[in-house]
Design goal:
9 helices; 193 residues; 77% helix; single chain; mainly alpha
């Protein structure tokens, strides 16, 4: 009796050995079903396709870790659900940050005239220029270029503690000059400098 890919153990063993026909079989049997399932979870056709694609990529990349005791069907459905949860969490964080950004921007526009906002930006830029050279360079690498503290430390050949000290010093100086009531301007530093 010849075994086929419909046999769960044979399918998993074939995937583990890198058998592309086994992978094609998996796609053929489950891709559409999983896409429908993902669409019911997320109600977005493109995101549903992305979720399913991610699941199949992860299955192939981690094929060596597949266990013959598990049901490949259950694994696929559970993986789609987990990927949906991951996407939901990422989007939730992004939506929260976007809302925070928009709320802050709205409050700035409501509270201040365009002229006073421009004056505030000019003060911030001027104070950044007055910072000691190493402090200024560190601060700009962080806030303008978006480098992490570790990347800055490597780039400038200084310790991470020194990077943190320079950034803290820069913020302290700027806070003194713009005042606590205007500290919301720091949310937009990357756009101002």
């Amino acid at each position: 009796m010849t075994k086929t890919f419909s046999d769960n153990i044979y399918l998993i063993n074939s995937l583990k050995t890198g058998n592309e026909d086994a992978y094609k079989y998996l796609l053929k049997i489950y891709h559409h079903k999983l896409s429908v399932y993902a669409y019911h979870l997320i109600a977005d056709k493109d995101l549903a396709e992305d979720i399913v694609q991610n699941v199949f990529i992860k299955i192939w990349k981690n094929k060596d870790n597949l266990k013959t005791t598990l049901s490949i069907k259950n694994l696929l459905y559970k993986s789609v659900y987990n990927e949906f949860i991951d996407q939901y969490r990422k989007n939730k964080k992004t939506i929260y940050l976007e809302k925070k950004y928009i709320d802050t921007l709205s409050s700035i526009v409501e509270e201040e005239s365009e002229q006073s906002l421009e004056q505030l930006i000019a003060i911030v830029r001027s104070e950044i220029d007055k910072l000691p050279p190493k402090c200024k360079e560190t601060f700009l690498l962080s806030k303008k270029d978006g480098l992490t503290n570790t990347e800055i430390a490597d780039y400038l050949n200084i310790s991470i503690k020194s990077v943190e000290k320079h950034i803290t010093r820069a913020f302290s100086t700027l806070r003194l000059k713009v005042g606590e009531t205007n500290s919301h301007i720091f949310l937009f530093l990357h756009k101002l400098i």
